[in-house]
Amino acid sequence: MAPPLPLYIPRPVRRRPYFSLWRWLIVALALALGAYYLPGLFTRPPYTPAAPGLVIEGQDLGAGLVRREKGEVLVPVPVLKEHLDPHLFWDEKEKLLTVTTADRVVRLPEAKLTAFVNARPVKLTVPVEVHGSTPYAPLTFLARLYELEVHYDEHAAVVAVTRRDRPHRTAALRLATPLRSGPSFASVRRAALAAGERVTVYEEKGIWLHVQAASGLTGYILRSAASAISLAPARSSLPTAPRPWQPPQGKVNLTWEYVHRRTPDWTSIGPLPGVNVISPTWFHLATPEGELTSRADPAFVRAAHARGLAVWALIGNNFDPDLTRAVLSSTARREKVIRQLLAYAHLLTLDGLNIDFENMYRADSRLFVQFLRELTPLAHAQGLPVSVDVTVPSESENWSQVYDRKAIAEAADYVALMAYDEHWATSPEAGSVASLPWTEAAIQATLREVPREKLLLGLPLYTRLWEEHALPGGGAKVTSTALSLRRARIFLAQNGLTPRRDPASGQNYVEFTRGATTFKLWLEDETSLQARLTLAQKYRLAGVASWQRGYAEPWVWELLAREL
Predict the structure, then answer these.
(1) pLDDT score recorded for residue 40
(2) How are beta strands 120-123 and 208-212 bridged, if at all?
(3) What's this model's pTM, rounded to 2 decimal places?
(4) Is the dihedral of CA 137, 141, 143, 149 positive or negative?
(5) At what angle do helices 526-538 and 436-447 cross, to 10 degrees?
């Protein structure tokens, strides 16, 4: 019997898969390259023509913000305020938009086709409109004020706003590339950009560039798709803020002339060597409607000019926060005050204005800055510099925190730091009017917000005689009397007192007891004044402002003339 044949079990055929792993990788790479180099495929536009988008300086703010009226684009004022000009001011009660630039004050009333530029009427195509509670401003008109480029691309359905007064980085595309919504290959492709197209570059993120295309659309492209980035200079003819008035030689040496009822005659004043600006306290807010009181004297101005002094009249607020709020909270009332000031300045041939608003509500800080921004361009048009008095930075809301010193310095030509009343008339404890360490700290704190070339150091030409009356149960009642330099000198002589240096204040000091009363006096004399002038020179300030002329003695002006 033949041996059985071996059982034949066929070996399974192992077929190689048609799509192996490396083939899948090749296909995936091909699809990726195809999608990249054929950017028109699968491109999804970000907007629809029914809802145009808004782009300001490369920031895509989304669709539905702009309105179209008679070919004009209207943009919400809050959006413009946030992204274009934080100083745009909308008066909700009076339905009035105010725009302030370096040389213009522009009023745009709601629903009226006439705007006013420095009080001169200008025709509009479309007025300011209010929809709901939101005001919309005509963008084309504002573009002329700010020198903006406004581009509306109907195909892309986007309104693009670019500032010409700023330099921009640009680049040309070396090859066609998609514009993506984010810095990732997975991001939606917004548009297909052609080779040679020029884009504005806003940011670099690794291998990606954040750009704005010619159509106004923004997004991201690969860095390798663009040529070298170049800087396009600003293309603006907007006027810059004028250089502040400066004396022919030396620094600003201003002194205030306190006028209670009547301006003194120059024959009673005597020579003021070195002084180049005198500021009489002539004007004050009088009524909530914006009326001013005036104690101005044309003869005083003529006499000052004959002596080579500039006259910067002071306007005060009577230290009344409620009166100040009533005036500043209304655009019409602010404008009324400004018109009166400029009319007085013209009639009296004034050389400048000094704004001395003190004791205001902290909530009115923005209104005060707005008043200055509306005043300064019009004052400059009459050749008038504007100076503003501010207190030393402190925790007091009404007396210090009400001042936005940075914004004030941007609006005005000079800022006078009233570096005195460290210890004020009703202070619960006796102390110097302005100790030297306190004064230097005040200068340093103010310089964080005010440029040194605009800052004037206030000089006290007075001191306070303090009386500490011992009380039966212990402690003391503190009172004070303000003394001019002359009265302080006479007081020392009458009482046979010899000052000694007080290391803590850096000033000369006297103290004596008579009965149950202790007298204390921190002196303002040549020693303290020289130390203050040294501080002004150390910090390279624009000059000084002394309160007040009537408290001084002749040696004061001689020292100031020599040092300044």
Answers:
(1) 44
(2) unpaired
(3) 0.89
(4) positive
(5) 20
Find the catalytic residue in 358, 422, 440, 563.
Answer: 358
CB 156 within 8 A of CB 45: yes
257 forms beta bridges with 280
Helix, coil or strand: residue 547? strand
Beginning with the edge strand found earlier in the chain, give each strand of the sheet holding 72-76 in spatial order.
Answer: 67-69, 72-76, 134-138, 129-131
DSSP-assigned letters across all residues of 40-68:
TTT---S-BTTB-EEEETTEEEEES--EE
Q: How many CA atoms lie within 13 A of 515 on its CB side?
A: 5
* Whether 314 contacts 352, CB under 8 Å: no
Q: Which amino acid is at 291?
A: E
358 is catalytic: yes
Q: Are 541 and 553 in contact (CB under 8 A)?
A: no
* Other residues' Cβ atoms within 10 Å of the Cβ of residue 548: 19
Q: What are the phi and psi torsion angles at 554 (to 5°)?
A: -55, -35
As a whole number of angstroms, the distance between CA 47 and CA 181 comes to 12
Cα distances (angstroms) measured from residue 308 to each of 17, 22, 248, 269: 102, 92, 10, 15
Token look-up 């306290």 returns 281
Q: What is the pLDDT of residues 124-149, one digit of tens each?
A: 999 999 999 999 999 999 999 988 99
Q: Which amino acid is at 282?
A: W
Strand 168-172 relative to strand 198-205, pairing = antiparallel
